[in-house]
Amino acid sequence: MRAITRDADAAPEHHDDLLILRVGPHLMRDARRPHDTPALRHLARLEARGHLHGVHAMDGGSLGGSLGGSLGGSLGGSHARVVRALRRAHRHHRTGEAHRGIVMVHLKHARHREALHDLLRDDPHVEWAERVPMRFIAGSEIRLPAPRGWHHAAVRLEEARALPGFREPRRIRVGVIDTGVDAGHPALRGRIARYVHRIGPYHAGPEDVVGHGTHVCGIIAAGANDMGAAGMCRPRLFAWKVFSTDTYLAGGPDAAQRHYLVDAIAYRAALHDALAARLDVLNLSLGGTGRPDPHEAALLARLQASGTTIVAAMGNSIAQRRRPSYPAASPGVVAVGAVDRDGEVADFSCIGRHIALCAPGVEIWSTLPRQPGAFGYGVTPSGRRAAGPSGLERNVRYDGWLGTSMACPQVTAAVAMLVGMHGPMAPDDVRLHLMRTATPLPAMRGRSFTMSCGAGRLDVARLLADAARGPRARTRRTGR
Question: pTM score, two decimals?
């Protein structure tokens, strides 16, 4: 087997070169020039000396639609651009809307982070300033023959689709924030309602180099095909690419590989855009052990408060399975672990009290991009990308993968079918139905909940039948 990443084993918790902050409501009244406070003066000095990649105002007002335009003032040659970014964030500051008024600072050198962080935290015009947690994908490729479609039988998909009153969830909005998607793949053609890969100043191409997002989308919604990689249902699928060409050195300075990681700015922009998209369910097959900063936490809470059920992968780890991975461990999120064909918890699936349930996550056959790609690159002793083949190439078109990333979209698809059949439901009620109808596993030894299995394995047939019988709380869409 070949792993993309083991989230908690070797990955760092935070970016070395990023800080995120929320401006205060009186910033522009009391600090009209960058030298009015020590923090702003220091920030302007860093810009003037060429030590900043950019300062980005992460306001929701500019992130709707196709995410076109600038996220904020990208620093060039004048501290006026720093002020412009701060003013833009200040304009969108709203009391009671903690996801607005946000600024991301991208440093060129990690050595400047600590001093700037201390000054920002002490600045009366800054509500909070935090380091930015890293987020990774949570899946792996396998190099063994994978049985095709076994997971459908395990979650009783055929029985669910045969229930009286079952309807294809064609109007249900499902979001996937991931490495992108090959929207022209024969099995996905016509299945992607919207694909966003250009976010503000980040003009990433549409190619899904890693293939992870295409695999996740296929698990949810791939059409019938001769390769046995059909998805579970057909909702309206919205995809966001939040992976850039930047990589991180896996395992520290002595490691031999570099892997792709979530671009922090693109990820938050996608969460903002997901609010505007009015999603019914959002799939996040990504995570990291760093706790969410206030901005990420506010965006996740805002999505749930406005009716979006968030489904997230528990994370993959061998050595540190008890370390929580976020956003799976965030309040209200449906956290999904992985089981194998025998109903045993996969040895890589992270555990914890926040887990809701498990789904099949080993040897899951699904779509991959038609173009060659790679999980990352081999590196030289200096840590730079090695010349020639990296040894981390992936397969094309179809393959079997493992990971909590592969279990997560099965629960996402089940939620889409649930809402499509029974109408809008509050995220807390969705989570309750999922757990109440899960199939107990032998490893649970008669208990109703364990930290490795949650409430058991996903059972789509019981889920849809139970919701038809019992009372449910409907949620009214609120302004986003």
Answer: 0.89
